[in-house]
Design brief:
With about 270 residues, the chain is α/β, with parallel strands linked by helices. It has a single domain (about 1-265), classed as 3-Layer(aba) Sandwich (Rossmann fold), CATH 3.40.50. It has 12 helices and 5 strands. It has helices at about 1-15, 15-20, 35-45, 60-75, 95-110, 140-150, 160-165, 175-195, 205-210, 215-230, 235-240, 250-265, and strands at about 25-30, 50, 120-125, 155-160, 200-205. Strands 2-3-1-4-5 form a 5-stranded parallel β-sheet, sandwiched between helices. The longest helix is centred in the last third of the chain and has 21 residues, at about 175-195. The radius of gyration is 22 Å and the shape is globular.
Length: about 270
């Protein structure tokens, strides 16, 4: 009985190999105040697509634990880990692939509600904390990340630094620290661009939200095609409608500020 219960729980949490093979992983790599929440909203209009918001890049801690566990197992591989008498009994079971399967299940459990696990073909999150990855760990982190999320695709979103750094929460941060964080993300974007050119797409806030309707439409169409493989007029229209919806930590407050500014302008 207990074995059957465990099997049912495992099936609920972990996708079948067939479902896993059909799934595409998509991640937005950017810095704070780049319009990434708006981009998240646009992505979630796409069919069979769920792109979650920020999570503090807790994957970095998973990567560090993975590296520590596999490094320890490798260091003691000669100490008879298959023998019950060994102080390191079972360490041979700690492998990259075994851990990656469990790490994927953990992260997918956080990303996907139960009722979406069968229908969601494109899954991921947007994050602004990529700067937390130490420069010397960039290659190792993304090698590990793609064990967990095979053939991951990356949307590299940018906005003018001088506009982003004077927006929102950055205004309360030390300017040098803010710029350092942004430039670190740009380094990571450059790394992904150079090492995985076929799996990255550039998006720019000023283009998507700009007054040039044709350029915005092209950017949105390219985004949909990159994620889903195509884009028709109906889908493009749904994506464009998202641009009129306020996005951010407190959309209601944004609307109030926008209304207040309009009122002040009308009395000026």
């Amino acid at each position: 009985m207990l074995g059957r219960i465990r099997a049912r729980v495992a099936r609920r949490i972990s996708p079948t190999p067939q479902a896993q093979a059909r799934r595409t992983f998509v991640f937005v790599v950017t810095y704070g105040r780049s319009g990434s929440t708006l981009l998240q909203g646009v992505l979630n209009v796409l069919p069979q697509t769920i792109i979650r918001g920020e999570n503090g890049l807790y994957a970095l801690e998973l990567f560090q634990a993975h590296r520590r566990a596999t490094g320890f197992a490798a260091a003691h591989a000669s100490h008879r880990p298959r023998k019950v008498q060994s102080a390191f009994y079972g360490a041979h079971l700690v492998t990259d692939q075994r851990l990656a399967v469990q790490e994927r299940s953990l992260m997918l459990a956080m990303l996907l509600p139960r009722n979406a696990r069968r229908r969601a073909r494109r899954v991921g999150f947007k994050e602004v904390a990529w700067h937390r990855i130490p420069a010397e760990d960039t290659e190792a982190f993304f090698d590990w990340f793609e064990l967990v999320f095979p053939e991951a695709r990356y949307v590299l979103n940018t906005r003018k630094i001088e506009d982003a750094v004077t927006s929102g929460f950055w205004r309360s941060r030390d300017p040098e620290e803010a710029l350092a964080a942004m430039h670190r993300v740009i380094e990571i974007q450059d790394y992904l661009r150079s090492t995985r050119p076929e799996r990255v797409l550039e998006t720019r806030y000023e283009v998507i939200t700009g007054e040039d309707a044709e350029a915005s439409a092209r950017a949105l169409g390219d985004l949909a095609t990159f994620v889903t493989g195509g884009c028709d007029d109906a889908l493009l229209e749904r994506m464009r409608e998202v641009l009129d919806v306020r996005h951010g930590p407190d959309p209601a407050a944004m609307r109030r500020r926008k209304k207040k500014r309009r009122g002040a302008a009308s009395h000026g």
